[in-house]
Amino acid sequence: MMHNVCSPVLQSKGESLQQQEASFEPASRLQGLRDRDTVTRFDREGLPNAEEAYNFFTFNFEPDPPDGSERSSVKRRKQRKTADRDEDRGDEAEEQEEAEADEENEEENESEEAPLVQNEEEDLFVIDQSPQDFLEVKKAVYIGYQNHIQRESEHLFTPSFRTPTSVKLPENMKPRYLEDEGLYVGERPHVSLTNENILENRILKMEEGMKWFGDDGRIMALPDPIKESSTRPPLFHMEEDVDPSLQTVYRKALKSKYANLYIAGAADPEGDYQLDVDVSGLIFSHHPLFSREHVLGARLAQLYDQYLTRQHNNLTGHLTDKLNGLRSALRNMLEIHGGQSLTQAMQQRFSEYSLEITTRQLRDSEQEKDRTLLKNIVKVWKEIKALREFQKFSNTPYKLYLRRENVDRASDEREHEDEILAEVVELEAESEEDYQKKLAEYNKQLEEWKLWRRKQKAKKKKKKKKKKGQTHEDTEDEDQEASESEGPVEEGPPKPEPPERLDFDSIEQQVREKASRIRRKPGEAILIPELSASGNITASELCPSETARRQDVARRSLFIKILYNDKEVSRTDSRSLNTDFRVHFGQIFNLKIVHCPQSINLQVFEEIGSSCSLLARVFVPVPEPSVVTGNVPVEEYEFSSNQRVMFDHEGVGSVPLSFEADGSNKQTLLTSGKLSCCVSWGIGEDDVPLAPPVSQQPGGIHGLGRLDAVTYIGASGLYDMKKIGEWATQSRLDPNDPKNASIMQLVASSGEVTAPEYFRLEHLQEEFNFVTDEELERSKRFRLLRLRNQEVAEFRNYKCVPALEREVTDKVFQEYEKRLKEGEIIDTKEHLDSHRALVAKYLQKIRESVINRFLLAKHHYILSDLVIEEEIPSIILGLNLFKLAEPKRPLKPQRKERKKVTAQNLSDGDIKLLINIIRAFDIPIRRPQSKPGQVPQSAIQSSDWFLNQVQVRPFVEVSFQRTVLQTTTADGPNPCWNEELQLPFAPNGDYSNASLQSVKDEVFINIFDEVVHETGVNDKDRGKSIHSWVEKHWLGSVKIPFSTIYSQSRQIDGTFKVNTPAVLLGYSKERSHGANGGYDFMRSLSEGTFITLFITMEPQLVPGETIREKQFDSQEDEHLLQASERFEREAAQGYPDRPCVSTVIDLNGKTVFITRFIRPLNPPQEFLDAFPNNPQEATALVARFVSLIPSLPDRVSFSGACDLWSTCDQFLTLLAGDEEEHAVLLCNYFLSMGKKAWLIIGTAIPEQGPTAYVLTYEQSRYLIWNPSSGQYYGQYDTFCPLQTIGCLVNADNVWFNIQEYTTPMRLSLDVTKANLWKPFFSRSFSHPGLSSVQPEELVYRRTDKAAAAELQDIEKILKEKIMEWRPRHPTRWNRYCTTTLKQFLPKLEMSRGQDVTEGHRHELQSLLGENRISGFPLHLPFSEIRPIVEAVYSTGVHSVQASNVEFALAVYVHPYPNNVLSVWVYLASLVRT
Amino acid sequence: MATSNPSVFLLTVNGQIEGANFPEYDDLYCKYCFVYGHDWAPTTGLEEGITQITRKNSQSSHRLIWNFPLETTFKSTNPSGWPQLVVSVYGPDVFGNDVVRGYGATHVPFTPGQHTRTIPMFVPEPTWRLQKFTGWLLGRRPEYTDPKVVAQGEGREVTRVRSQGFVTVSFHILTKDMKKMGYDIGPSSPANSASVTSGWSTEEQQ
Fold first, then answer.
1. How many CB atoms lie within 10 A of CB A853?
2. Is A593 helix (H, G, I), strand (E, B) or coil?
3. Are the C-beta atoms of A1005 and A1037 separated by less than 8 Å?
4. Could you tell me the end-to-end alpha-carbon distance of chain B, in angstroms, rounded to an integer?
5. Which domains does chain B show, CATH number per domain?
6. A992 Cβ contact list (under 8 Å, min separation 6)
7. A859 in contact with B at a CB cutoff of 8 Å?
8. pTM of the predicted protein model
9. ∠ Cα A290 A293 A296 (to 5°)
10. Where is this region: Disordered (chain B) (predicted)?
């Protein structure tokens, strides 16, 4: 509302503004104006207001003297106010505006404010005081440094001085050094002296500071817990080589006895335990508020109590009876024997007598005690009486009556006399006995003495004689003798004194004296004291000196706190102290307990007014479980306090006190008393004691009782080491304490005591377990759930786990358990050779670990797994447009991409394998049946024979999963079938990717020759009939693993080389006509049969996703990994069809840079030695060796998870690997042989997909080696299976092919040309000097000929198999042929199956004469028996139906180093013609 | 019919997808499906479905009403993998392309009786700004590969989402034999036992 403050010139404008605003103002603001018309308001009131305001403001701005103007202005305003109020009541807005205006004034004229406020009746203005009014401005005050220090010293405490010991100890106490007293004191932790001083001074200032100091005047401290040296053994973590002694050993966690402090079962409602604490009352035997009379009274009561107990026990009476009994027995004995002293009887008498003596003495002492007690009672009573008389009032109600029992004086005297006499007689006899003994002793000694005297005399005489005339020697002897005898002269037995006989009179005297002292006098009345509390206590009014004390007593009250396990659980009501110093509580507390009872502590508190103090603590033992409420008497526990109390009234206090007038005979009376209470276990509703079982009170007893070894195990147990050990553990002896050193040593030597070696973090964990672990383990349902969760293959998609335990059958686990068991046991049938069995097991393990890793990786998601997102549009998208402009070529049809089907929607029979067999080249042709002896003249035949001869009638048979389909028969060596075969595929009902990938079946594509035999049978009746039967002869095969088909996203399309046997009996390989001599070299390389195939699956399955290899961890440098990723990405973008590999995964699952795998490695020495002059032969041998290592695609072994590369030594140990391993090994061998070699990463036809070959540069030619077959091809070889070269690798670098073409023929293989080959390491990113992962040298095991010989068993197995496959026909074996064949096999091995001489075929044929023979040798690297059997089966030799067929089968196993085996199987069927 | 020793328990879910609250969008439809664990099997009713397209009232109300009925019965042996209702809402953008407007999931309530759930909805965010633009331009917003991923926790850490609106679903739950198999779900009093004899326990939620 600033417009009111505006100058008058702006007034009209302000009004218009106000007008505008009024329409916008919220309704609430205008409520006051609602009743009135706004227009009238402006008419009437607006103008005068403005005028006034103008005056008002101009007036204020003038520099007037304050006193003149202020009053008038205020008056005027008041006037106006009252006037306004009539017109516009409730126009608060207006008033507030004015108030604001006032504020403005205040700023200018402060002095105006005070009277304004005072004069103003309205509170409105009071609010508007500004903070400045209360402020006082002063200048900063300087305080001098000295003053500052002085002031600080009042508040600050600087403890720098050393505190004297006397300050830290209670008054009048000397420091006590426990260590000096021989007690064990641990070493104190080191604290610097200054800190200690500071701390001590600080503590001294504190309340109750004294309790922090020990007896020696130092701060109490526990022994230093820090060990001087580290107790943990240092861990030197080198690679994986941990010291075997530091290997962690798994120990199953043990259940700790002490871990469970809770009572088991306390949680469940039935198992609550109840401890009843009955606090009945309290009696003080001394209290500071006792008056003197009370002290005496208490003593009297105590003595009387003692008297009563003595009376009750009546020891004197017992002993007297016993004595009498003994005496009578003795008398009887004497009578029977009539004084005859039998030795035996005498002995008995003696023993009994001695017993009697002790009895009599015991009785005497007891009698004496009785007497003194009585005397004391009387004496104390007299004192009380005297005191009462003296102080003229009585404070205690005690009254002692002495009942007098009169006795018959005469009998009493007689008895007394008898007693004395008897005793005297006994004593006489005793002393007589003693005297006799002593006398005998004396006589003996006397005898000895006399003897000695006599000797002495004799010696003296002798000496005299000898001294007269003797030889020297004699004198020496004599001297010695003399010296011997002279000794006793001085020390001779003194003459014994004769024993004195005791005077009978004196004995009697003594007895009488004693009797008068300890017994009542004869005829004296028997005094029986009786104490009663029936006396009256003098009222307080009558004894003014007592009032103060009695008032004090009345002020006091007592209560008892009950502490269970040192925690207060309840307290009794507060009861006032009675004048008789007895307090009755009579309260029973029922404690529901959860913790094991360890201590029960009752604390007696005294309350004076509002302050209370602890008088004493009473420790009550934890009751046995048998102690239950109801059957326990109330027990009394004594307590006492050592507090000193003094009063200025009659109360005696607890200080040394004398009852004598002269102050002597001081007695210190301390507060003490008895607390009667009882603790027992409660009883439940059904009389069940609510006590925990005994075993669950571990801590309850050992507090005190177990520390004493003897009470714990009993004296006899002290010899039992085990018991001592047990005791030592349970009493928790301090092993550092020197007191316990011996026992600890003892125990340690027996090995019984071991401190717990573990630390349990959550020792209450067990409490929260549902069931025990064993039960959980046993639960089949739980196991099933767990296995499913772990994604174990058998249970991965298990549906509907039964709800109840009993519904889970054992059958579910059978398969799983079987598999587990198989993992352990190696099937020796499958593996003829133990090494391979081990390898298989090892592979299995690796496979499992890789699968686990893979499963783990599957749970790592990246964004593209979860979210479909539009790619950033790229230029590639634009390229697709150009495809539209491509010319249509209907005569060159392209295969179209089909829709992919996810595996989930499939069921059995849906999947088919489509195999399109198109054509084949160079199939071997039949050799005409040459008669024996006829010389084959190929030169003559070649022209006409070639034309009219039925060369071969081949057909193709495809077998997959034992389903066999075949094509029609075509003619000639280059047939064209162009047929499609459909094979059903049944992957065991599981269509998941993982399962499909792990299908190990292979597709066998066999080429057979159909041979029709005709035999003319001349039947005379019916004329000539012709029987013909068809035979099929195996020519070769191609096998393609299913995993290859599955993993190929599109299809397999290409020309494959057919594996043909080295020798085909009856067939020959014909060169193409018009053989050109110039091509000879090339021809020999391309020798072989080829077949063009197209294989795909219907419907097309989505191949299993390749694992994201980058998720594996790596030890490579981060830069290198990034560079490699970039390299591969760029390669994939530019040339998507060229494989590029720069990093691979090793067997440990770590990413390794590929060049690390290349390193020259030595081939087996014997290969090099075999052909020292022919390096080419050696090269071929090495290549053959590598090819003989069985091939095992990673996809099969690792279920398509990933491609793992093993190093060469691993490869040679595993004896299985795929192309990469073969290629790396071959490349490394070549490098070590001095060749220039590279690894080719590319694609090839049979492998279909990224594979590895080896490139060598020799004699200015590039050779491409197929590592899995050992064959080599020239760069320009048309039949080279290598189709694409993606990159080349050697130890230093990786080159990526950036040329236009990929086929080797059209490539320049010169890697130095940077525009053709893009290097990984270039000048910008140089080779960081990566070390190789390969070993420095390969170590080969010698060829084991014996092992190879054992493998000849294969022959037997194969023969059995063939017979098995021919169940309806007899299988005859031609032994002669077999032996012949066997001779050929080593030759074939020698020639590496290559250039087969015609010779041996002729030889064979000549040997076998009229038999028509067809057969071939199969050559396989040995891995296991199954592939061999499969290969034999696929040839179909066994299916020959002819009745007169005979078979021949020979096996030869050739061993190479490191257990690499080459297996040759020669199969032949013979038909007698 | 009620056997004394049941081997499965049954859960009947009746209810409806009542509507949604998406202040910015209109013309939406909703797809729903149930996600459940290995031990569950639907016995009757539809497991997934798609609603009609609804429009907002021309008045100020923001509500979109579908009132799409749900009626499914599951049988199960194990409460683990309790069914979740996954809803995903789609609608046209400015260019008329159907784009996703929200994903959401909720567990089917455990206790018998009537329940209403309001499910907050969200959509995945594009990784790059550029993608956001092109996505808008081409009508291809980021989508989950499978709407069911919103019912699982695994792998969600790689995604980033934006909140979009709410879908309201009401459930009427009946269970059978759960108590017999030892699964005590929620408030059940002895008074309830009368209805247990009929095999089905229903209890109105207070």
1. 19
2. strand
3. yes
4. 30
5. 9-181 (2.60.40.150)
6. A797, A903, A904
7. yes
8. 0.47
9. 95
10. 185-206
